[in-house]
Amino acid sequence: MAERTFKIWRGNKDGGEFVEYKVDVGPGWVVLDCIHRIQMQHSTDLACRWNCKAGKCGSCSMEINGKPRLGCMTRMNSLPEGTITVQPLKTFPVIKDLVTDVSWNFEQNKRIAPFKPRPRDADGHHRMKQEDVDRVQEFRKCIECFLCQDVCHVLRDHKAHDKFVGPRFMIRLASLEMHPLDTDDRVEKIRKEFGSGWCNITRCCTEVCPEHIGITDNGIIPLKERVVDRFYDPVAWFLGKVFGKK
Amino acid sequence: MSTSSTAIGGHQDTFAATLRSDRWWLGPTLTAAGLIAFFGYLTIRVFYAQYVWADPYMSPVVSPPLFTPAAGYKGAVPVNHAWLGAFPAWWPSFLPKSPGFFFPVLAIMFRATCYYYRKAYYRAFAASPPACGVRGVPLKYRGETALLIFQNLHRYALYGALFLLVFLWWDGLAAFFKNGRFGIGVGTILLLMNAFLLSCYTFGCHSWRHLIGGKLDCFSCDAQSRTRLGVWKKSTWFNVRHMQFAWLSLGWVALTDFYISMVSMGYIKDLNTW
After folding, report:
1. Which structural domains are found in chain A, ordered by start?
2. B163-181, pLDDT tens digit by residue?
3. From A136, which residue of chain B is nearest by alpha-carbon distance?
């Protein structure tokens, strides 16, 4: 077992500080294992949200050495020598220690018009071909860890929570807009209410996604292009009027 | 156990504040250096406007030439190769007579509004943000909703790039013929490779990918949609490698121009079959 030093932020919305802990790390351990060891040996009141320990529940989002990551998917042997810093997510208000209040995200989800399928076929079924749903299935891999929301500088640094819905919900919007059965039109809201223009494509959301979803290339940029079709491209507008929407 | 005081969550809000322990600054620094080096070189070449022709090779920084200087410029494109001949008399005297001021500007527009290059220069030059999890410049931010709203016209720059591409392929193919004789030289290969890499970059463009199929919600609804699905999938292959092709093609344009200028100046003897 090798001893590693952690600096973990302890506190609440009123303030706090980094507290140093030393942990004997076993083979194959992840950061979340170390936090559990710290809870067991040093501070039983260290708050940390977690659940599946398998990278599928999206609960243990935190910032490890300054990078938004899942505690359960960050292997200790992948981290460089030296002290490891662990912080709560910056974009959301701290509740206690590593636990943040991410409820703002759930409020954004409620703002998005839900799936509105076309009428069923004559036999009462909805039919889609695999090639039509491949694209949106990528977006369904999202585990709502909100690492993308945390790293997005529009929310993180500029606090434009009232202007931009964030990468996670751009992906949700993309999954609905590109769905072959969906009939609702959200393009105007994507521009005006959900703030597609606020994203400047710096791709940090894609870099931190633990599910490797092509958030920028497959979600946000295609939505921006749909906004261009509707609002900025006179040729597309004209062709759409003449030949119908395609 | 020891402690140290800090801000809420341990997050400072000053420029470049971060607890990242890796060399996060390396990426934006290399990007800035690369962009300055390549675009700087190409800008100088456009303004210099000499040694852009070494029969039968025409530098991509002046192609296709609308006008060309009739005299006074060494290694200039011959007048009979310019679409409208020699520069007109009204051309301002303070500007060099460079064919690069016309159609090649379309390539600059295409790269300047490219979704990949936007990431590159927003990070490297605007520090907005410089790297993921690193505090950017604490200035008022409007994204691409105000001054930068013109980025939405990227597809028009794409149309210009597609137009240019036709002529760059033509230049590559025309470089097989010197004084009516078929042959091949190092310059021919460079020009063909230039057109090939620019094609790989252009056909991975996000706007292209959207227009040729991405805008559809149903790929299986009719024969045309199925065809577009096939093209969209191929474009996706290039799109995944958009950054690599962006840099490769940019570097190759500079390399091709440099080679042609060296041949034109007589510093390099072109290996060829003529």
Report:
1. 2-100 (3.10.20.30), 103-243 (1.10.1060.10)
2. 999 999 999 999 999 999 9
3. B217
